[in-house]
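Record type: monomer structure entry
Structure origin: computed from sequence
Chain ID: A
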Amino acid sequence: STAALHGHPFMSIHAANKGAIVAFTKSLA
């Protein structure tokens, strides 16, 4: 993510976690 390159590593981590949660919930559906 480009967010990490702009000094916002937390946002890129948050986006990655949200993406993982979405993928996980879709796999359960």
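Annotation 1: The mean pLDDT is 72.
Annotation 2: Residues 9-28 form the longest helix (20 residues).
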